[in-house]
Specification:
This protein is an alpha/beta fold. It has nine helices and six strands; from the N terminus they run βαααααβαβαβαββα. α1 packs across α2. The longest helix is centred in the N-terminal third of the chain and has 20 residues.
C-alpha cells in the first residue's frame, strides 16, 4: 500500500463518535417537545429505562406505556420525527479528533447509513465537513442502498481513482460494514469501542474485518501493518 495514495474511508456512528450520545441527545429533544406540547415531564428518563430494559425498538411506545400515556400512532410518529430531526449535541471521540487533526493523513471520506437528514445533521454537529473530503450518505439513493450494498463503495472508488489495496474502510459493525469492501480488495479495520451499541460478532469469515483496534490511537499501527503486508490483529477464521 502506498501511503501517498492511501484513502481512508470511515463509518460514522460508533466509529467517529459514540452513537449513544446521539440517542441521549435525541431523547432530551423529544422530552422537551413532549413537555412543551403535552405537559408530560420525565420522558427522557423513561426512554433510557426502556433501552436499559432491552427495548431496542419501539422505545417511545414502551416509555409512554410506562408513564401511563396512550401510545397513539400519530403521537409516536411525531416523536420519531422530532428525534430524527433534532440538532444533535454530540462530539467526536477524543481519539478520532486527534487522528483527524493530524496533517499528512491523506484523503479521507465517510460512508454512512441512516436517514439522510439525520446523518447530515450529525456530520454538521461534529464539524466533519472541514475534516474529510467526501461524505457519502447512502440514504440519498434509498434504504435499499444502505450497506452492505456496493454502490457507496463504487462511488468512493470512482472518486478516489486508486488501487483497491490503497483503500481502507474503518467501521464498527461486522454485520454489514466489511463484507463488501473486503470482496472488492479493500483493507478493513474494525473499531471495537467499549461503549458501542452494535456489540455483535461477525456471522462468518467473510464479514470479519482484516484487523481490530479499540480506538483511533491504534489506527496508525494497523495501517503500518497493512503496509508491511499483514494484519496487526488478524481474526481467526
Amino acid at each position: 500500500m502506498s501511503t501517498s495514495e492511501r484513502v481512508l474511508v470511515f463509518d460514522l456512528d460508533d466509529t467517529l463518535y459514540l452513537e449513544r450520545d446521539f440517542v441521549a441527545s435525541g431523547f432530551k429533544a423529544v422530552a422537551t417537545w413532549l413537555a412543551g406540547h403535552a405537559g408530560i415531564e420525565g420522558f427522557a428518563a423513561h426512554c433510557e429505562a426502556a433501552v436499559a430494559g432491552g427495548h431496542s425498538g419501539h422505545v417511545f411506545d414502551a416509555a409512554l406505556a410506562a408513564m401511563g400515556v396512550d401510545a397513539d400512532a400519530s403521537l409516536v410518529a411525531q416523536l420519531v420525527a422530532v428525534y430524527r430531526g433534532h440538532e444533535p449535541k454530540i462530539h467526536l471521540a477524543a481519539d478520532a479528533r486527534r487522528f483527524l487533526a493530524r496533517s499528512g493523513v491523506g484523503r479521507r471520506a465517510i460512508i454512512t447509513d441512516g436517514p439522510a437528514a439525520t446523518q447530515q445533521a450529525k456530520v454538521k454537529a461534529l464539524g466533519l465537513e472541514t475534516l474529510v473530503d467526501l461524505v457519502v450518505f447512502t440514504d440519498d439513493w434509498g434504504r435499499e442502498f444502505w450497506k452492505p450494498h456496493a454502490r457507496a463503495f463504487e462511488t468512493i472508488e470512482a472518486w478516489a481513482q486508486v488501487k483497491p489495496g490503497d483503500l481502507v474502510y474503518i467501521a464498527d459493525n461486522p454485520l454489514k460494514d466489511f463484507v463488501t469492501p473486503r470482496s472488492r480488495g479493500w483493507h478493513t479495520v474494525m473499531v471495537a469501542r467499549e461503549a458501542r451499541i452494535h456489540n455483535t460478532a461477525a456471522p462468518d469469515a467473510a464479514h470479519r474485518a482484516d484487523t481490530q483496534i479499540s480506538d483511533f490511537d491504534e489506527l496508525e499501527d494497523a495501517l503500518r501493518a497493512f503496509d508491511a503486508g499483514y494484519a496487526a490483529e488478524p481474526f481467526s477464521p
